[in-house]
Amino acid sequence: MTNNVHEIRPRGGGDTEKITINLGYVDLGHIDLLVHDGFYSNRSDFIRTAIRNQIERHAEATRQSVTRKSLDLGLRHFSRADLEAVRAAGQRLDIRVLGLASIADDVSPELARATIASISVLGALQASPAVKAALADRTG
C-alpha cells in the first residue's frame, strides 16, 4: 500500500485547510502595513509565507522526527479495497501521517474498526463522520 503515498507541495487552491488565528492589534497593523506597501498581496499571503519560512527553518528537526516516529509524509489515502485486503490478510494498520490522511467515503465504520488499530494524523483527516466517530478511541 505504500505506492499511494504522495508528497504534498505547498500551493494555493483547493488543497488547503482554513484555520483561525488571533493576533494582537500591533502585529495585525504591521502585517497590514507590509500589505499596503506591496510586500505581500494580502494578509493570508504574509501568514503563509511566515509559516513556510518557519517550517524551512526547522526542516532538519522535522525530517528527524518524521523518521523517528515512522510517519508517512504527504497524502495517504485508504480505499475500501485497501482495507478489505488488510482484513483478508488478518492484519491491522497503525496509521501515522504528517499531511493528509483520507479514508474513502464507501468505507463502513465496521470495516474501519476491524482494520485500523490506531491512527495519528498531524495535519488533517478526511473521513465520513461515522468513520471518525468509530475511530475516536484510536486516534492520538
UniProtKB/TrEMBL annotation:
Single GO BP term: regulation of DNA-templated transcription
Listed Pfam families: RHH_8
Domain of life of the source: Bacteria
InterPro entries membership: Arc_rbn_hlx_hlx (IPR013321), RHH_8 (IPR041088), Ribbon_hlx_hlx (IPR010985)
PANTHER family: BLL4998 PROTEIN
Protein name (Swiss-Prot/TrEMBL): CopG family transcriptional regulator
